[in-house]
Amino acid sequence: MNDFLKGIYEWRWIIWGLALVIVWVSAALIGMFYLWFRNIRGVMPSPGVHGLDLTATEKKEFGMPEQQLAFYQDSYISTPNGQVFIRPYDIIIGIDNKKLEMTARQFLAYVKVNYNVGDRITYNILRDGERLDVPVTLTRWDPGPRSE
Protein backbone atom coordinates (compact mmCIF):
# COMPACT_ATOMS: atom_id res chain seq x y z
CA MET A 1 0.00 0.00 0.00
CA ASN A 2 1.48 3.36 -0.90
CA ASP A 3 1.85 6.21 1.60
CA PHE A 4 -1.14 8.14 0.25
CA LEU A 5 -3.54 5.21 0.78
CA LYS A 6 -2.11 4.56 4.26
CA GLY A 7 -2.83 8.19 5.17
CA ILE A 8 -6.45 7.95 4.00
CA TYR A 9 -6.88 4.68 5.89
CA GLU A 10 -5.61 6.22 9.16
CA TRP A 11 -7.79 9.35 8.78
CA ARG A 12 -10.86 7.18 8.30
CA TRP A 13 -10.43 5.72 11.80
CA ILE A 14 -9.82 9.15 13.30
CA ILE A 15 -13.04 10.47 11.74
CA TRP A 16 -14.99 7.45 13.00
CA GLY A 17 -13.56 7.99 16.48
CA LEU A 18 -14.55 11.67 16.46
CA ALA A 19 -18.05 10.76 15.29
CA LEU A 20 -18.43 8.32 18.19
CA VAL A 21 -17.24 10.96 20.68
CA ILE A 22 -19.77 13.48 19.28
CA VAL A 23 -22.61 10.94 19.59
CA TRP A 24 -21.57 10.05 23.14
CA VAL A 25 -21.34 13.70 24.27
CA SER A 26 -24.69 14.49 22.63
CA ALA A 27 -26.36 11.58 24.41
CA ALA A 28 -24.87 12.69 27.73
CA LEU A 29 -26.14 16.26 27.27
CA ILE A 30 -29.62 15.06 26.33
CA GLY A 31 -29.66 12.82 29.40
CA MET A 32 -28.60 15.70 31.66
CA PHE A 33 -31.31 17.96 30.23
CA TYR A 34 -33.91 15.24 30.75
CA LEU A 35 -32.91 14.82 34.41
CA TRP A 36 -32.90 18.61 34.95
CA PHE A 37 -36.37 18.96 33.40
CA ARG A 38 -37.78 16.13 35.53
CA ASN A 39 -36.42 17.82 38.66
CA ILE A 40 -37.65 21.32 37.86
CA ARG A 41 -41.22 20.11 37.34
CA GLY A 42 -41.78 19.92 41.09
CA VAL A 43 -40.20 23.31 41.78
CA MET A 44 -42.25 25.63 39.58
CA PRO A 45 -45.66 26.72 40.88
CA SER A 46 -48.84 26.27 38.90
CA PRO A 47 -50.84 29.50 38.58
CA GLY A 48 -54.02 27.44 38.14
CA VAL A 49 -55.47 30.07 35.79
CA HIS A 50 -55.28 30.56 32.04
CA GLY A 51 -57.35 32.05 29.29
CA LEU A 52 -57.74 34.71 26.63
CA ASP A 53 -56.91 38.38 27.02
CA LEU A 54 -59.70 40.94 26.96
CA THR A 55 -59.72 43.10 23.85
CA ALA A 56 -58.88 46.80 24.08
CA THR A 57 -62.59 47.59 23.68
CA GLU A 58 -63.56 45.25 26.52
CA LYS A 59 -60.91 46.75 28.78
CA LYS A 60 -62.20 50.23 27.97
CA GLU A 61 -65.74 49.15 28.96
CA PHE A 62 -64.38 48.11 32.37
CA GLY A 63 -62.44 51.37 32.69
CA MET A 64 -59.03 49.74 32.47
CA PRO A 65 -55.92 50.95 30.67
CA GLU A 66 -55.23 49.07 27.45
CA GLN A 67 -51.96 47.53 28.74
CA GLN A 68 -53.35 46.28 32.07
CA LEU A 69 -53.53 42.57 32.73
CA ALA A 70 -57.07 41.33 32.15
CA PHE A 71 -58.02 37.92 30.84
CA TYR A 72 -61.01 35.61 30.95
CA GLN A 73 -60.51 32.37 32.85
CA ASP A 74 -60.97 29.49 30.43
CA SER A 75 -63.83 27.05 30.92
CA TYR A 76 -61.33 24.38 32.03
CA ILE A 77 -60.24 25.05 35.58
CA SER A 78 -57.21 23.58 37.34
CA THR A 79 -58.12 22.93 40.94
CA PRO A 80 -54.89 22.54 42.89
CA ASN A 81 -55.44 20.37 45.96
CA GLY A 82 -59.20 20.56 45.43
CA GLN A 83 -59.31 24.34 45.86
CA VAL A 84 -62.16 25.86 43.90
CA PHE A 85 -61.20 29.49 43.70
CA ILE A 86 -61.78 30.68 40.15
CA ARG A 87 -64.86 30.13 38.02
CA PRO A 88 -65.08 29.97 34.24
CA TYR A 89 -65.20 33.43 32.66
CA ASP A 90 -63.96 35.25 35.77
CA ILE A 91 -61.68 38.07 34.70
CA ILE A 92 -58.25 37.97 36.29
CA ILE A 93 -56.99 41.56 36.69
CA GLY A 94 -54.05 41.22 39.06
CA ILE A 95 -52.27 39.42 41.84
CA ASP A 96 -51.68 40.63 45.40
CA ASN A 97 -53.28 44.00 44.50
CA LYS A 98 -50.59 44.71 41.91
CA LYS A 99 -51.75 46.29 38.67
CA LEU A 100 -49.68 44.46 36.10
CA GLU A 101 -49.14 45.49 32.49
CA MET A 102 -48.86 42.21 30.61
CA THR A 103 -50.75 39.58 28.65
CA ALA A 104 -52.24 36.37 30.06
CA ARG A 105 -49.30 34.34 28.74
CA GLN A 106 -46.80 36.75 30.32
CA PHE A 107 -48.76 36.51 33.57
CA LEU A 108 -48.30 32.73 33.71
CA ALA A 109 -44.54 33.16 33.31
CA TYR A 110 -44.57 35.98 35.90
CA VAL A 111 -46.14 33.70 38.52
CA LYS A 112 -43.74 30.84 37.78
CA VAL A 113 -40.71 33.12 38.07
CA ASN A 114 -41.72 35.30 41.04
CA TYR A 115 -43.49 32.83 43.33
CA ASN A 116 -42.75 29.42 44.83
CA VAL A 117 -44.75 26.29 45.48
CA GLY A 118 -46.62 26.77 48.76
CA ASP A 119 -46.78 30.59 48.54
CA ARG A 120 -50.11 32.10 49.51
CA ILE A 121 -51.23 34.65 46.92
CA THR A 122 -54.37 36.63 46.23
CA TYR A 123 -55.88 36.77 42.76
CA ASN A 124 -57.74 39.98 42.01
CA ILE A 125 -60.70 39.16 39.82
CA LEU A 126 -63.90 40.57 38.39
CA ARG A 127 -66.91 38.28 38.72
CA ASP A 128 -70.25 39.52 37.42
CA GLY A 129 -68.92 43.09 37.52
CA GLU A 130 -67.84 42.86 41.17
CA ARG A 131 -64.17 42.98 42.20
CA LEU A 132 -63.13 40.08 44.43
CA ASP A 133 -59.90 39.00 46.10
CA VAL A 134 -59.44 35.24 46.03
CA PRO A 135 -56.69 33.73 48.22
CA VAL A 136 -54.89 30.70 46.77
CA THR A 137 -51.99 28.51 47.80
CA LEU A 138 -49.79 27.70 44.81
CA THR A 139 -49.14 24.03 44.12
CA ARG A 140 -46.47 22.48 41.96
CA TRP A 141 -46.62 22.73 38.19
CA ASP A 142 -47.11 19.44 36.39
CA PRO A 143 -47.13 19.77 32.58
CA GLY A 144 -48.62 16.33 32.11
CA PRO A 145 -48.22 12.66 32.84
CA ARG A 146 -44.79 11.09 32.78
CA SER A 147 -43.71 7.50 32.85
CA GLU A 148 -41.35 6.40 35.55
How would you describe the overall organization of this protein?
- By secondary structure, the chain is of the alpha+beta class.
- It folds into 2 domains: 1-41; 46-139, PDZ domain (Pdz3 Domain, Roll), CATH 2.30.42.10.
- Helices cover 37% and strands 21% of the residues.
- Strand 5 (120-127) and strand 6 (130-137) form a beta hairpin.
Going by helix content, strand content and strand pairing, the class is alpha+beta
* Sequence stretches where pLDDT stays below 50 over 5 or more residues: none
User: What is the arithmetic mean of pLDDT?
Assistant: 81
Counted by DSSP, the helix tally is: 3
Reconstruct the topology from this structure.
Layout: H1 3-40, E1 45-46, E2 51-53, H2 56-61, E3 71-73, E4 91-95, H3 104-114, E5 120-127, E6 130-137, E7 139-140
Antiparallel strand pairs: 1-7, 2-3, 3-4, 4-5, 5-6
Question: How would you concisely characterize the structure shown here?
Answer:
The chain has 148 residues and is of the alpha+beta class. The chain folds into 2 domains: 1-41; 46-139, PDZ domain (Pdz3 Domain, Roll), CATH 2.30.42.10. It has helices at 3-40, 56-61, 104-114; strands spanning 45-46, 51-53, 71-73, 91-95, 120-127, 130-137, 139-140.
Summarize this structure as a short list of keywords or feature phrases:
148 residues; alpha+beta; Pdz3 Domain; 2 domains; 5-stranded antiparallel β-sheet; two-stranded antiparallel sheet; 21% strand
